[in-house]
Amino acid sequence: MVVQSQLVFDHFAPIKSCKHTALFTGIPVIDLSDPEAKTHIVKACEDFGFFKVVNHGVSDDLIGALEAQALKFFHLPQSEKEKAGPADPFGYGSKRIGPNGDVGWIEYLLLNTNHELISEKSLFILRENPEIFRCAVEEYILAVKKMACEVLEAMAEGLGIEKHDLSRLLKDERSDCCFRLNHYPPCPELEALSGRNLIGFGEHTDPQIISVLRSNNTTGLHICLRDGSWVPVPPDQRSFFINVGDSLQLGGYTRQCASKDQTGRCAQ
Ligand SMILES: C=C1C[C@]23C[C@@]1(O)CC[C@H]2[C@@]12CC[C@H](O)[C@@](C)(C(=O)O1)[C@H]2[C@@H]3C(=O)O
Ligand SMILES: O=C(O)CCC(=O)C(=O)O
């Protein structure tokens, strides 16, 4: 009924929507096994602040195991998921993102990558079998960190600075590196009424040196180009995307936003 739907709209008024636009085909692709990767990475950072990585060495098994655990968690009843929250900033969060009052059509698990914290939070995340969840997350983080270090080392070489100057920030025990599992639930009623997608994770920059993103095979991630236009990134579940964060701006335009909205989507 129109009146009820209007109430739903009012209730989620702070959550914005966006139009569908054609996918952007110009994202630079970096083959990590290419000896010239360092040169291509620096160029991609300068031109876009964003690129896709293939031949990254993270196995399909680790990715599959992590995704299975994530979906298991997000498909739990709401009351069970809330036992892993509220996000402090770590733990389960829904609609409220970060400390500044931002909201989006999203639910997530935010974890520090430290072993003790993952173990402690796992007890509240998949309480039936926290060890399986913990192992899937820790093994995945280890492999992704290794790949991120390779990217940072190639980047440092390409920039002509000492090879380990950037990767040591990630390897440091005191690194504030974190791990985010995002789930963008469908909202067909609101989308049918507005004809637009709901924004999951709104426009933002990332404060870190780099963010490593992967999603299952659904669209939604957008980046902002130098000319100020927002373009949708074609999904590729077998690759990772790297976004240059505020701490490592190389002159490229680094803003990005995700406005994901399809069923069963789960990205990290
Ligand atoms: C709205 C926000 C959430 C965020 C901090 C911020 O103000 C802008 C960037 C967000 C981000 C993106 C990368 C990481 O997922 C994250 C943990 C981070 O450090 O910056 C999140 C922040 C968050 O979820 O709290
Ligand atoms: O879920 C995504 O694909 C993007 C999330 C994001 O932009 C972030 O965590 O910084």
UniProtKB/TrEMBL annotation:
Q: Which residues form the Non-haem dioxygenase N-terminal domain?
A: 27-114
Q: Which residues form a coiled coil?
A: none
Q: Which Gene3D superfamilies match?
A: B-lactam Antibiotic, Isopenicillin N Synthase, Chain
Question: What does the UniProt keyword field contain?
Answer: Dioxygenase, Iron, Metal-binding, Oxidoreductase
Indicate the segments forming the Isopenicillin N synthase-like Fe(2+) 2OG dioxygenase domain, all copies: 176-251
The protein's required cofactor(s) are namely: Fe cation
Q: Where are the transmembrane segments?
A: none
Q: Which reaction does it catalyse?
A: gibberellin A1 + 2-oxoglutarate + O2 = gibberellin A8 + succinate + CO2
| Molecular function via GO | gibberellin 2-beta-dioxygenase activity; metal ion binding
Q: What is its EC number?
A: 1.14.11.13
Pathway the protein acts in: Plant hormone biosynthesis; gibberellin biosynthesis; Hormone biosynthesis
| Protein's UniProt keywords contain Oxidoreductase | yes
User: What EC class is this?
Assistant: oxidoreductase
At the top level, the lineage of the source is: Eukaryota
Its biological purpose: Catalyzes the 2-beta-hydroxylation of several biologically active gibberellins, leading to the homeostatic regulation of their endogenous level. Catabolism of gibberellins (GAs) plays a central role in plant development. Converts GA9/GA20 to GA51/GA29 and GA4/GA1 to GA34/GA8.
Per the record, the similarity remark reads: Belongs to the iron/ascorbate-dependent oxidoreductase family. GA2OX subfamily.
Q: Under what name is this protein listed?
A: gibberellin 2beta-dioxygenase
Origin organism of this chain?
Cucurbita maxima
- What lineage, starting at the top, does this entry show? Eukaryota, Viridiplantae, Streptophyta, Embryophyta, Tracheophyta
Its gene name is: LOC111490445
